[in-house]
Amino acid sequence: MLQSLSIRDIVLIEALDLEFGSGLTVLTGETGAGKSILLDSLGLALGNRADSGLVRQGTEKAQVTASFEPPAAGSRLAATLAENDIEIEPGEPLIIKRSVKADGGSRAFINDQPCSAALLRAVGGQLIEIHGQHDDRGLINPKGHRALLDILPASKALRSAKRLTPGRPRNRRWSRRGRSRKRRKTTVIISSIAWRNCRNLRRSRARSRSLRWNGRR
Fold first, then answer.
1. FRET label pair with 80: which of 110, 164, 175, 203, CA 20 to 30 Å apart?
2. Distance (Å, rounded) from C-alpha 99 to C-alpha 60?
């Protein structure tokens, strides 16, 4: 969980320190109040492209520091850090620091240990999910259909029954035509599940818009 976010000289923000507690936190404000700057700052800490345009005018560099709960022992995050020789003392929070200079150069640290932006992205992907208004577009991307299928409760049984990556057939009489037909059938199953999820999401959003409209009336 994100515990704190410290921002220095990013766009319009000179200095800002935020502390987050357990449960839901809501940040509100009118258009132009700076809500998106907070997301841009967090994205910078999580490995997004270091854009010199984020540096506040008249300053040499911008910096953001994000603090998270320590990774659980044996978790995938802990393994990722260990594989990249990032050491964290037991009970110590995971602290990510990233700075970008006005000339475009940037530096990144995890618990005061230098790291690459690629490692930040790998770590950030396991810490936070940022959702936007166009997330539903990802449902029509064929590259994500396998991941959608894996999320379903019956995915293990389906993978076992359909063998998404068929190995060597037990029956030597199994022809190439049969293998091709089986692959096509699996592809249809994956595509239909992704289409159904996309359809359900659109219906849910349509109902939500209808309720908001009726409430205004």
1. 164
2. 10
- Contact (CB, 8 A) for 190 and 151: no
Rounded to whole angstroms, the Cα distance separating 29 from 43 reads 20
The pLDDT tens digits of the residues spanning 64-90 come to 999 999 888 888 888 898 888 888 887
The separation between CA 127 and the C-alpha centre of its own chain, rounded to angstroms, equals: 8
| pLDDT recorded at residue 152 | 66
Closest by CA to 119, choosing from 147, 93, 85, 89, is 85
- Scan for tokens 């068929």, then name that residue: 166
Q: How confident is the model at residue 174 (pLDDT cuts 50, 70, 90)?
A: very low
Query: Left (φ > 0), alpha (ψ -120 to 50) or beta: where does 160 sit?
Result: alpha
**Quick check: 172 pLDDT over 60?**
no
Cα–Cα distance for residue pair 123/121, rounded to 1 Å: 5
pTM equals 0.61
DSSP 75: S
